[in-house]
Specification:
The chain is 46% helix and 29% strand. The chain is an alpha+beta fold and 163 residues long. The chain is elongated, with a radius of gyration of 25 Å. The mean pLDDT is 86.
């Protein structure tokens, strides 16, 4: 029954390791995306569209996306739909007529990502990793202290304090 006290530390440790593995995979994906989207351009929102997408609750929702025009470094004029989607039309970057910075794949210039979407991804993975490190450290400490207590390693210390 006393071994049940090891459970909280083990759960923190397991969650920490999962967070670290997921953040590593996400960071690697971000690095690949950064390498592929090496071209930089300023784009203008020229239209919007809608598509049906499944959300986290497996419910189909109508989502809005932007259609952007931009010129590549080699002079190609591109019009392409964003892969990012938004529930509110007014949340689409550039909806007010502003120019937006985007990064595109020079090999496939219609593949692009808006810079503000990349900023979120770049800030998300390090925060996710820090959470994983914290959970792992807490898990190790709680498990070690609990195991030491269960093995009676603190008994001489407690006996000395009580004398």
């Amino acid at each position: 029954m006393d071994a049940l006290f090891l459970l909280p530390g083990g759960i923190c440790l397991l969650l920490g390791i999962i967070f670290l593995l997921v953040s590593r995979k996400g960071q690697a994906g971000q690095e690949i995306t950064d390498r592929l989207l090496a071209g930089e351009a300023w784009g203008r929102l020229t239209g919007t569209g809608q598509r049906e997408e499944e959300d986290f609750d497996n419910i189909m929702r109508t989502m809005n996306f932007g259609i952007y025009e931009y010129d590549t470094a080699d002079g190609q004029h591109i019009s392409s739909a964003s892969r990012a989607s938004y529930t509110n039309l007014k949340d689409i970057p550039g909806i007010q007529g502003d120019m937006v910075k985007l990064h595109y794949d020079p090999e496939h210039p219609a593949a692009f990502s808006l810079q503000e979407e990349q900023v979120f991804s770049r800030s998300f993975w390090p925060a996710f990793r820090k959470t994983g490190i914290r959970l792992t450290v807490i898990g190790v400490i709680v498990t070690a202290v609990t195991a030491a207590a269960l093995l009676g390693l603190f008994n001489p210390l407690i006996d000395g304090l009580l004398d």
